[in-house]
Structures are given as C-alpha cells and as structure tokens.
Amino acid sequence: MISIKNVSKSYDKKNKIIEKINLEIKGGEIFGFLGPNGAGKTTTIKMITGILDIDEGDILINGKSIKTDPLEAKKEFGFVPDSPDMFLNLKGIEYLNFIADMYEVSQQQRKQKIDELKKLVADARKAEAEDSQ
Known about the structure:
By secondary structure, the chain is of the alpha+beta class. 41% of the residues lie in helices and 20% in strands. The chain is built from five helices and four strands. A four-stranded antiparallel β-sheet has the order 2-1-3-4. A hairpin with a 5-residue loop joins β1 and β2.
C-alpha cells in the first residue's frame, strides 16, 4: 500500500508544485496520474520513489516511510523509469554508492571494494599508456 499524507513540494520558496496532497493506493490497485504539464505528476512519482525529497508530510510504502527510513521503504517496490536518464546524471561514485545502498553493502566493505576498483582502473590505464608509447 502507498499512503501519501499531507505531502507538499516546492522548487523555490514562492511556488508550491504539490500542496498537501493525500492519497491512498491499496495493494493490488492499479493507479495512474493524469493531468496537464506542470500539474505535479512526475514530481509526485519522484517523491514516492525517493528520487526527490519531500518538503512536508510523509509517504509510506507498506508502512515504511520514504522520508525517515528510505532504504527499507525502497525495498518494498520496484521502479522502471520511462528512460534511464537519471543514471546519466550520477557521478561514478554516486552510482556505486546507489548500488551499494541497494544491496546493503557496509561503508567499510564498499570503501575497500571501491579502492580495489580504483587501483585496477589506474593500473589498466598505466599499462595502456605504456603500450601506446
């Protein structure tokens, strides 16, 4: 179940895109957002998935808050974007941390693995540079 409670969002201090919406989508229901450009459809979906922060209110996914417990909430659903552009905006380290968060890789393990991968890439670049000389 998705429960949206008094959720608001603005991109600047003056104009609220979403203002105190409330919505409950029960398990098994199929729900769609319809409306004109700028109505807040994509913004609402991005807040449900945790891509965008919520200014006010809360969103619960099967009782887990996307605001206060985002990792647990994100385990409750899958999201398939219409285009994978959001991944193009992530830096390499942000993408690695995103995946590590999804698989609950500890900070210590992730640092160790990232350091290993950095060394591997640096060694490969060095070897490639030496071969091209």
